[in-house]
Amino acid sequence: MGVQPSPPHLTLPILILISSSLLLVASHDYHDALSKCILFFEGQRSGFLPQDQRQNWRANSGLGDGSTNGIDLTGGYYDAGDNVKFGFPMAFSTTLLAWSVIEFGDSMPSDDLRNTLVAIRWATDYLLKTVSQPNRIFVQVGDPIKDHNCWERPEDMDTDRTVYSVEAPKTASDVAGETAAAFAASSMAFRSSDPGYAETLLRSAIRIFEYADNYKGAYSDNEDVRPGVCPFYCDFDGYQDELLWGAAWLGRASQNQSYRNYIQYNGKTLGADDNINEFGWDNKHAGLNVLVSKEFLEGNVYSLESYKASADSFMCTLIPESSSSHIEYTPGGLIYRPGGSNMQHVTSIAFLLLVYANYLSRTSQTVNCGSISIGPTSLHQQAKKQVDYLLGDNPMSMSYMVGYGDKYPQRLHHRGSSLPSIKDHPEFIPCKDGSVYFNSSSSNPNIHVGAVVGGPGEDDIYEDDRADFRKSEPTTYINAPLVGVLAYFVANPN
Fold it and tell me: pLDDT at residue 182 above 90?
């Protein structure tokens, strides 16, 4: 089931007092967590699986995707615990995996860096197929209503693999802009190891951004697409942020001045100053401001100062001691936003904290939050509290990453993990016959190593209930930014 974003309202924080005894907790094994965080993506693969597939409870699936439309759309990722390939969140997850490599790849052990690049390429190879026809973008494969009415392994899928596409002059600025960002960021990630592939990705980014900019509007405003993408990955927050986000990534990857001009001149009209306190698959504002502020901080591009000011403002909202703090925390100290899967906010915000801290430390800058000044160390500490909570330093003494630590979620809201593997039970399990596994109180038979669930409620309680998808469903966009976060702490554990 797709996870809807939480509503934009934020409430006042609960100040967290950290006792000195908590500071003595033994450090986590961030390297182990990083390797597992990347491994998760292998359990989400669609298509023909390679010989070196490590999540070996999975097998080939979706091998006919696109055939009804005369195009090969095999590959890519299932976004969460269902069997639909949603292009919008997949492209965002790809951008964040690539950004993790760009910022923190130097901190990654070589095996983890290689596996992260493999995870990125599994997505970009698929996304290249979705834009292979001129002036057309394939945005989704699978009818989500029919898919969500089944509890079925991806290997057994017999629901409609409906293909949803948008063709010019119909609008898809959001998906096209995010796909351009994914290609541009990934081109930077592959530049040293595969320059030819990097060049292919950059050329595709330039072309698909032109579509986004020429036909402005949301993909979910098209009546032929809307029934398939809404309410799951509807564009709730507008398409304007993806235009700026795509342009910002193209500017960074290509070093072409025209993209910098684009974000400079279109910032006001495209709402760069709006809604800056969120970052996720639907809302790029906070990430955009952090990304662009690098140009101001390290490149002395003074015309982009407003993005730096917005990034500063966002950081101040996250610091409990700041007068402008207005992010809600659980009593145990976890960032909490009401609504959908909460851990997506935790991992993406922790990622931005670390990226911005790096930009500040390289330029010897601080953030002025009214009466207090915040330096990189404070931002690092904020991020560390979040990742340590996720890995087990919480009131439940539970890791929210499957397979990490001694106690972790056993009943994921995830079809492939909760049904017997096709290798153990080769007989076909029809759509409704999976319900007995969904309704079971037994642990999932297949351990989806590295999966991070939506996490506890605002009271820090986690019931480990498969039916409660907001808490028990993993998603690609929870894990993608966490790759970068964990890579940083591998190199800087204290």
Answer: yes
* Residue 473 annotated among the catalytic residues of the structure: yes
Nearest 5°: the CA angle 337, 341, 344 is: 80
- CA 440 – CA 465 distance, rounded (Å): 10
Q: Nearest-5° angle of CA 306, CA 307, CA 310?
A: 90
DSSP 8-state assignment for residue 247: H
| Selection from 93, 139, 149 nearest residue 235 by Cα | 139
Residue 139's φ and ψ, nearest 5 degrees, are -105, -15
User: In this structure, what token pair is assigned to residue 330?
Assistant: 């659980």
Q: How far apart are CA 220 and CA 341, in angstroms?
A: 21
Q: What residues contact residue 353 under an 8 Å CB cut-off, 6+ apart? A: 315, 318, 379, 380, 382, 383
Count of Cβ atoms closer than 10 Å to residue 380 Cβ: 18
pLDDT of 340 > 90? The answer is no
User: What is the set of domains in the chain, with CATH numbers?
Assistant: 22-491 (1.50.10.10)
413 is catalytic: yes
Residue 14, pLDDT > 60, answer no
CA nearest 124: which of 70, 57, 178? 178
Look at residue 23 and tell me whether its pLDDT is greater than 50: no
Q: How far apart (Å, rounded) are the C-alpha atoms in residues 400 and 472?
A: 9
CB atoms within 10 A of CB 395: 16
Query: Which pLDDT belongs to residue 275?
Result: 53
- The verdict on whether 464 is a catalytic residue reads yes
Interatomic CA distance for residues 458 and 91, integer angstroms: 29
Buried b (16+ CB within 10 A) or exposed e, 129-165: bbbeeeebbbbbbbbbeebbebbbbbbbbebebbbbb
Alpha-carbon torsion (487, 491, 493, 494), positive or negative: negative
pLDDT tens digit sequence for 123-154:
999 999 999 999 999 999 999 999 999 999 99
Q: Are strands 335-336 and 367-369 parallel, antiparallel or unpaired?
A: unpaired
**Calpha distance 409→402 (Å, rounded):** 6
Catalytic residue among 285, 413, 414, 448: 413
Give the tens place of pLDDT for each residue, 392-411: 999 999 999 999 999 999 99
Residues 454-479: tens digit of each pLDDT: 999 999 999 999 999 999 999 999 99
pTM of the model: 0.93
Identified catalytic residue from 82, 103, 312, 473: 473
